[in-house]
Model the fold of this input.
Amino acid sequence: MTYLRAPNRLTSSARNLLPSTVMATPGKAARNNRSAANGAALLTSRDNRWLKEFRMALRGGLPTEDGFVGVEGVRLVEEALRSGCPIRAVLFSESGERHHERLASLIDPPEMAFPVLRTTDRLFEGLADTEHPQGVAALVKPREVSFDDLVSTPSTACAPLLVVLAGVQDPGNVGTILRAAAALGATGGAAAASGVSGTASPYSPKALRASAGAALHLPILAGMSLAILLTQFKIAGIRTLASSVRENLGSLPSTALPPTVGARFSASPSGDAAPPLLAPWEVDWCQPVALLVGNEGGGLPEEVERSADARIRIPMASGVESLNAAAAAAVVLYEAARQRNSIRASNIQESVASQPPKTPDAVRSPKSSDALRPPEET
Done:
């Protein structure tokens, strides 16, 4: 398992401009032969330098010396090719060549200047990380993301919505949370160590599979310490919302604030009082917000919760102690998406209202109180 504890030192994101070859080796250019994957000779030696790189990235779960990570399976390779991230090489096994037709439009054009390689089924199984490999893999370099990139607001969003993984150790949970974040409109993510708990790399093979490739599309800042990240959020005006498994922090009671006050973070805890504890629908998600998700067993450290602008806890039926970290994050992010989509619909309504309506009631404006009211039960 790979953990993020130190800044990720990646080299330049320039593409490796090696064309596909008959017998390619890393760092050596060769003649262009892009007609099909089966136009290249088989790589039959376990010690071939290309196969060593794929083995390190897939089975070893480590980035190559140049910062490339491995993705395996036709869907993940397709996502990697569509992501715009630099590709070092694509590898097919003999049986995996059946997937070449599906990927042809992404790997055959001359401007896609990377090697397309072939190897035997036996050697592919030896480097793959899955029990039943599909016979296609790629080396891809995740996009480099700065803090300014992370906190910028896309034109399609009302404000930054960030998910910070702080001590989430299971790669499957890391990938699932990032997949939910991308699906529910988060604008970015971050992975940082929390106390003694490292966070599994979002680019490990298992995390990439669990994210279904979302980690290659969502801007992710990896390797910054949590303390520095939280300080930077404060400077940038990003409110921090700590997911909590505790009702009270130690002996300190939570501040009792009306929902509309706590939701808008307009008041700070006084004295030694803990930050307000809110339900997901009591939060105004149309502000710049960073949701902090902690370790699967212990959650976030108390000092992190104490330093947050507010804490969030999902009300549950009696007898149920907590949810899985990924499930809890998805529930909270769904409420964020509901509010942010309501704001978008409201903006559309205002735009339509400024013009002669084509049909009556073409767009229904949501009630102003929708953002702070839980969904009605049916």
